[in-house]
Amino acid sequence: MRKSLFAGLLLVIACGELEDKPFNNPPIILSVRVPSYVTSNDTLEVSTFDPEHDTVSVKLTVGTSSGQTLTNVMSRAFSDSGLYGDKTAFDGVFTGQLNSLLLLGNGSSTFEFVFEVAQQSGESSTLKISVLQNPASGHPPVLTSLSAPDTVRTSQDSTFKISVTVSDPEGLNDIASVTRINVTLGGQPRSLNDDGENGDDTPADGIYSELVSVSPPPANGSYLFRVQATDKLGLKSNALEKTIVIAN
């Protein structure tokens, strides 16, 4: 009998503990207001909702295109106090000031903004948004070491290879395209690649290549080829040129 009473007492206590700790829904981010690219004075707004109406906080971390995580990215922390730029107190909309100078001085072409809203109990949710670097703060790619034959004899070869070494202050992930055009004949740009295909020896080593077909053979003569790279901000590299003689 005593064992039954004791077990019943433990059950009541356990139920009481469960009732004291009901399931807690995490807060959510309804929307954010961020610039499409970094400027010199960026105010951020984060609209939040918490089902339990608990006190929540908002913070931001920023990742770069090279995988670096930046700290101290806010010059004024997020607040819902109705002060320091926040329009209305306790409306769930948090306002903060981005440390724009920190981001403008960084070499990254893009940033990943990770917003987190959290309760004091630790329940939280996140939202990720990509923001571009300011175009005025970007750095264009650089081309060096253009390699191509001086003469191609179509009686012996049906293709020839053009290669160029590409670098970028923001890293090779910032390269959007590397193209060449036949200036003599005109026409659309053709892509060089760094994926180990179509004449490229080693993928992702910064050397972009293309196998150019000369079949059927073009007319004998000198042809001027121009190569140029473009990054993800649309900034263009220096152009390198090479004159190639096509002969039988």
Explain how this protein is built:
With 248 residues, this protein is mainly beta. It has two domains: 24-136, Immunoglobulins (Immunoglobulin-like, Sandwich), CATH 2.60.40; 142-247, Immunoglobulin-like, CATH 2.60.40. The protein has helices at residues 2-20, 100-104, and strands spanning 28-33, 43-49, 56-64, 69-70, 74-79, 93-98, 110-119, 124-132, 142-147, 151-153, 159-167, 175-182, 190-192, 207-213, 221-231, 240-247. The protein has a five-stranded mixed β-sheet, with no helix packed on it. A four-stranded antiparallel β-sheet has the order 1-2-6-5, with no helix packed on it. Strands 4-3-7-8 form a four-stranded antiparallel β-sheet, with no helix packed on it. The longest helix is centred in the N-terminal third of the chain and has 19 residues, at 2-20. It is elongated, with a radius of gyration of 30 Å. It starts with a helix and ends with a strand. Mean pLDDT is 88; it is low at 1-14.
SSE topology sketch:
Elements: H1 2-20, E1 28-33, E2 43-49, E3 56-64, E4 69-70, E5 74-79, E6 93-98, H2 100-104, E7 110-119, E8 124-132, E9 142-147, E10 151-153, E11 159-167, E12 175-182, E13 190-192, E14 207-213, E15 221-231, E16 240-247
Parallel strand pairs: 10-16
Antiparallel strand pairs: 1-2, 2-6, 3-4, 3-7, 5-6, 7-8, 9-11, 11-14, 12-13, 12-15, 15-16
